[in-house]
Design a protein that fits this description.
By secondary structure, the protein is α+β, with helices and mostly antiparallel strands. It is built from 4 helices and 3 strands. Strand 1 and strand 2 form a beta hairpin.
Length: about 100
């Protein structure tokens, strides 16, 4: 992956493969994924142990990213699983692949 970081991204964190999912948007994906992994953000991801970065898309503008995040959040769980598997069939944690 040749993305430049930090960048604007929509992302999905998971508790485990086919587990609890969290969809978010950020202007600094490595930082935000680190915060989720280390339990630095109180709330849903900490309570449900969503620590694996399993999917993301990069955007040029925050408005585009927010629109995509809102669409994905409304999707059925099965559709989100398919989206993840198109990028990350084995549900690997993508955080180590980010070029910080």
């Amino acid at each position: 992956m040749s993305e430049r970081f930090p960048c604007i991204a929509v992302y999905i964190m998971a508790s485990r493969p086919f587990g609890v999912l969290y969809t978010g948007v950020t202007n600094d994906l490595p930082r935000r994924a680190f915060e989720h992994r280390e339990g630095l953000l109180k709330g849903f991801t900490l309570d449900r142990r969503c620590k694996l970065l399993v999917w993301y898309e990069i955007y040029e503008s925050m408005s585009e990213a927010i629109a995509r995040e809102k669409r994905v959040k409304k999707w059925r769980r099965a559709w989100k699983y398919e989206l993840i598997e198109q990028m990350n069939e084995g549900w690997a944690d993508l955080y180590p692949t980010l070029h910080h």
